[in-house]
Records
---
Amino acid sequence: MSALDDIEAAAAALNNLTAQEAAEKARIDAAVAAALGAFANPQKTVYLDAVAGLDTNDGSTPALAMQTLNKALSLIGAGQYGTVMLQSDVTVTAPIAFVGTALVTSPGVAPDGSAPIKRKVTFAPSAVTANPAPSANYAIYHAVGTSLIFIGVNVALGPVTTATGVFGTTYRLEFWHGSISFDPASTSPLIAAGIGASVWFIDMALPANYGGRIFQGIPAGANPNSTALRTNLLAA
């Protein structure tokens, strides 16, 4: 085979590889677009307004908003996915039983995380202490297979003193473009440590004294990924 033949064969092989790469890129782009489209056009959007809403409404418009996060999530439906659009700040005062995928967000959140107003979701002690056995000590429970994603939302713990965490561990939890804060009287960790938890913080403002407060049983400065927990935080 001549040098020219070698060059032509190499060029043909390169063209084939380039075509394969292009096909793989197209496949990945399609998968990403489909995933984004799922929330761009959610199965259901439920509006929540703790000030003007009523849990007897259907949540279909801002004028017919629900009053509680508990009821808003229940309207998404078991095993379904949807968006809860916060028209006001809200305080969670009773435990939530939800199995599905929900995006909880403020209106007008841009891809870079900016928003006209970032709403606040506060978890009160009664959201934990009122929880019946055997799921006591979690504000959100019995949620195997559940995903909760907060985008453009400030999450706050009231004076919660449970030792086990506000969020249970059978979760995919994501917090984007907001903040997390603790009431001065709160001693509770935010999230229970254990098998099955996947927790991500993206562009979130954490309090300066958060060490040891995010994950139950993981001391300040320790790597939470040393447990069955999976998170992008390198130190608790």
---
Amino acid sequence: MNSFYTKEELNKLGLKSYGQNVKISRKASIYIPENISVGNNVQIDDFCMLIGGEKGIFIGNNVHIAFACLILGTAGVVFEDFSSLSSRSAIYSATDDYSGRVLINPTIPMEYKNIIKGRVIVGKHAVIGTNCTVLPDVKIGTGCAIGANSLIIKDLEDWGIYVGSPVKKIKNRKRDLIELEKRYTEKYNYGKKSRRGGCKNYIPIICPSFVWKVAS
């Protein structure tokens, strides 16, 4: 026996939609599931916390969210197909204002706070290394690779390798995996319908224009 929910248990989670071969750990914490959509061949490991929030979390196909990650969907978080989030990493689409002009933390009424919000998009084939932090209003480009312990505070160009706090590009990433993706999708008949709502709520190969329409 493993720690992943059965199909029957997945139905009871209340997700907006989910696809085939979805593995979500029973030890993960899922809040506001009605604003979370999950594609095909997705794995979410132990001790992750996903908070759907107002705008929601949209997870494409063949996405892995590793051990002990945090995803805050207040302003919307999107994982495009074949993207990955490594262990102990966090994605914030909203955060307190730390400038000192306002009070912070959830014990304070909103009239005394200023919440900074912005949608986060993790591009297709992007991989975020362990113990990274992504702050609001960021697009991580297609094919980006981000090294461990990095801080992402601005948009990243496609197919770059980035490291540091904040991240800096150190070189270009190879694109050989695109051919492997084609072979894989042809072999496994990629792109079946999701459960709960059929094609209407299903996330195919996600592109930013589709996401803006759904999540706005």
